[in-house]
Amino acid sequence: MNTSLPDGVVYTETVVRTPPEKYVEEAPYQIAIVDLPGAGRKTVRILGEYVTIGESVSFDSYRDDVPCYRRSADTKISQISNK
Fold this sequence. Notes:
Elements: E1 8-16, E2 29-36, E3 40-47, E4 56-63, E5 66-71
C-alpha cells in the first residue's frame, strides 16, 4: 500500500507483550485505535515512543499492510468529543 493516511488522535491503546509468532522478536510493541478526521477509527501500530489516549499521531508507513503511526511533533493532548 502506498496511500498515506491523515493525522489522528489516539482513542485507546494497549501494549502487546505476547504477540503472534511472526512478531515475537518485536515485542513488546504498542497498538492503538486512532480517530481519523473524516475517516472514522482505525487500528494502527505505534512506532517509537509510546503514546497515551488523546495524543496526536502522524502516519509513518505501512508494515505488512498495517498502518504505522508515530507521536506527532505537536504532542499536546487533544480533546475527544463523545457525540
